[in-house]
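Last lecture ended with a question: if I hand you only a sequence, what can you say about the shape of the protein? Today we answer it with a concrete record. The protein is DUF2892 domain-containing protein. Below, first the input exactly as provided, then the predicted structure, then a couple of comments.
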Amino acid sequence: MFNKNIKLVIAVLIIAFAVYQFIEGYIGNGIALIFLSLVFIFLYFRNELILLSFLRMRKQDMEGTQKWLSKIKNPESALIKKQQGYYNYLHGIIYSQKNLTQAEKYFKKALKLGLTMDYDVAMAKLSLAGISMQKRRKREATQLLKEAKKLDKNNMLTEQIKMMQQQMKKI
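The predicted structure:
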């Protein structure tokens, strides 16, 4: 809702007021204010609209996800680099059901900007491999599948990777 810089300014002001409360002897107020400032610092690194989009995505509500993502105006200035990666990652998932060319663009941009979790990187590469396979680019799809398999440390995508490898043999 707030710009990323405004969140930091609010956090600094709250911390300054917390220090003032400590000096005045109101230790409880100061501690409560420190916790309040931690909320703004957390929201600097994890954008609230992206978090709400992920909640909608969990419920398989693509329209709701799109609605929350559309509330982010000018993501280049409103989000830090990793958040921009997840913004594009979510758009890639949404467009993978509608427009493969657009989804491919979003997934590549998300990988370029960076994703925090290895599972998310593996999922993005797996999706790109599926798009490459549908566009008959077998070599690129094979390379992306190998990278996704390497990143899938918890074996959460093993079934999908095996299924895609079997489909690759048919091509």
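Comments.
1. The two ends are 47 Å apart (CA to CA).
2. The mean pLDDT is 86.
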